[in-house]
Amino acid sequence: MSADEAAGEIRRLVPDVETLAQRLAGVDYLVDEGLATSMFLSLRLPQPLLLEGEAGVGKTEAAKALASILETPLVRLQCYEGIDAAEALYEWNYPRQLLSIRLAESQGESLGEEDLFGPDYLIRRPLLRALEHPGPRPAVLLVDEIDRADDDFEAFLLELLAEAAVTIPELGTVRATHPPAIVLTSNRTRDLHDAVKRRCLYHWIPYPTPEREVEIVRRRVKGASETLAVQVANAVSRMRHSDVQKPPGIAEAIDWLAALELLGVETLDAGTMDRTLGTVLKYEEDQEVIRAAGLEELVRNK
Amino acid sequence: MSREFRVSSVELDLPPFVGAFSRRLHEAGLPITPARAADFARALTLVEPISRRRLYWTARGVLVTDQSQVKTFDSVFFAVFGHRLDDKPFEPETTESAPPTEEQPSDLRPPTSSGEAEHGRPSWSRAGGAADEEGEEAQPQLIASDEERLASKSFDALEPGELAQLYHLMSSLEVATPVRRTRRHVTSRHGAKIDMRRTLRGSLRSGGDPVHLRHRERRIKRRRLVMLCDISGSMEPYARAYLQFLTSAVGSGPNAEVFVFATRLTRLTRALSSRNPERAIQRAAQAAPDWSSGTRIGDALKEFNDRHGRRGMARGAVIVILSDGWERGDPALVAREMERLSRLARKIIWVNPRIAASAFTPSAGGMAAALPYIDELVSGHSFAALRAVVQAIGEVGGRRPEVGGAGPEPVEEDWASAEPVAGSSVAMPSGYGPSRGNTTPGWVTDE
Q1: How many Å lie between the alpha carbon of A258 and the closest alpha carbon of chain B?
Q2: What is the ipTM of this complex?
Q3: CB-CB: which of B47, B96, B99 is closest to A40?
Q4: Which of A125, A219, A250, B84 ranks highest by number of CB atoms within 10 Å?
C-alpha cells in the first residue's frame, strides 16, 4: 500500500527521462543523457545506482541533487575501513539498558531480554533511518565511497540493496515502508564484489566537456564572468590531459573560479594562476609539472 | 502495457528481442543473468527508447556492471543496431576520459611473436598443457632427487616437460605477507578492550551484573601483496615459470593482486584466480596482448601508480616487481615512479633473474634508476631462489622500524613517514651497496 504510494509519488515527479534532467538542472545539477537515463531507471525500476568516476566529477552531488528534487532527506553513510553494523545500521543503547536493569531491580520488578532489546533501546544509524523514513516520498540513501569499507561490509549491504530490508537478530526483519532511493559511489580503489554489482545499476561518470564544464561552474559560482569561466574550464581540461598525478575534478574547477572571483580577477594570466594554483592542484609535484610546462600554455588559445 | 516499441521505425517484439540481445552480450563475455535481462525488459517499457541513443543508454545502464565492460558492450550494440547512425553523436568524452579498460574484449588475442609462430600462441601456455598430460602419465611420481635437481635449475634452462613438474613445486610454496592490525575488532579472551555489547548481553544471565567481562581486540590481517611481472622479450625465458609463481601467489590468499607489463599494464588477478592453474595461465595469455614485446617499466609503473596504487592498492602493501630492469624508455621516469611507489608501499622487493650471473652489474638503465627505492633485491632465477623471494615477502622488514624488536609482533599501521632504520637486514648482492642515502639519510647497513 504505502510502497505503492511511494512509487506513485515518484512516477508523478519523474514521468520520463527529460523531466528528470530538467528537474536536476533546476537544482543546478547538469546531467548528460547517460546519467539521466541511469538515474531515471534507478528511481523507477527501482534499483540501487552505483556511480563510479574520477574524484570530483560529482558522484556525491548526484545523490544530493536527487534528494533535493524529491524534496526528501538525504541520509548519508560515509564508509571507511572498519565500518561495521554498529556504526552503519543500529546499536543498542547500553547505558539506558543498564539503567533500566537497575531501576527494575530497585522496584522489585523483573526485566526480560525482550524488554531490553526493544525499539526504545535502539540507536538508529543511517541505514536504519533511511529504511524507517515515513514518506510519503522515499528518502535518498547515499552510501559514499563504498570501496573504502572492507569487503565484509559489502556482504552486509546485500540484503539492504536487494530487499530494502535489514535483519536485526533481536528484533527481526525491518522492511522499509517506503524503500529509499539508494546511490552508492566508489572511487575504484578496489573491485567491488560481483554480488553487489549484480544488485545495482552501474554508471561511470566521465569528466564533462569544457563547454559543459563552463555551464556547471557558472551555475555554482554565481556572478562569475563567462570569459573567466571559459578560461578556467579550458585550463582545467588541459591540466587533466597533462602529466599530473591527481587530475583536478569539477570541484577543483569550482573552487578555483570562486577563488579568482574573490580576488577580483577578470582574465586569467600567468601571474594570477601562479598565486591560485593551490586551489586546483593539491600536489607539489603536480604544480611543478604544470609550472615547468609553462603557465601561459594553459590559457593560450588553440 | 504495450508489448511493442519502436526504434528508428523498426518494430520489435519485446521478449524475443531482449532475450536475443542479452544472449549475444552473454556470449561476448558480459555477466548477464536472467534477472538482469528481465530488468532490461522492464526498463524498456519504462523508458520508451525513442532514439537509438536512448536505447543505448538504457541498455548500458542496466546491463553493464563495470567500466571495463563498456568496450565489449559497445561492439555488440553497434553490431546489432548499426554503427552510430544517429543524428547526434554519442558523448565523445565517455571514451576519451574513461580509464582504459583493464580487460580486453575477448576477440583480441595476444599477438604471437616470431619465435612462437608454429604454436600460434605463447609457447609456454601450450607447452605447459601438453607436457602436463604426457609428463604425468609417463612418470606418475616425481622422485625426490628429481625435484632437487629441478629446484636449483635456472628457469631459462628448463625443458618444456620440466615446466609442468615445476608447477608441483610451485604450489608447495606458501606465499604469505606480514600482518597488520585492522580497525575491526574480534572477540578475544585476552583483548585489551571490553566488548560492551557481549558483556551486557551476558549480564542478563546473572541478573544484570556483568560477572563475565568479554574482551575484544583488533583483528589481524595479512598485508596486501601486489606483484608486477615483466613479460617483455628479454624476460621471456623466465616469464612462463614466473607466471606459475604468480598463479600460486594469487591462490595463496584473497589479498594478492597481479599485474603484467611489457608495453602496457594488464591486471591479471581475475584471470589467474582459477582453481585450475592450466586454465588460469591460458586465460592470462589471452588477457595480456603484449607478450614478448618491448619494455616500458616507467610507463607501466606510472600507470599502476595512477590507476591503482594511488587509489589505495599499494598503500601499506608488499610490492614485488619481477623484471630484469632493461628499460626502453627514460630511466628518470622509472626513478620518479619508484619514488612514488616507495612512499605508498610498505616494502618493495625487486626480483631480477639476471643478478645470478657472476658478471652482473646493475647497469640496465631501469634497474640502476630503481635501486635507491628497493628494499630487497633478490635473484629468483630458479625455484630455490624463489624460496628466498617468498621469505622476503614474509619478513616484516621494510624501511619502517619494527615495533618491540623482532618476532611476529604485528606492527601498527604507520602512515607518518619513512624513518631511517638502523640495522635493517637488506639482502643486496655483493658488489654494490644500498644507496638509499638520498631518500632516507642515516641508513646504516649492518655489514
Answers
A1: 25
A2: 0.77
A3: B47
A4: A250
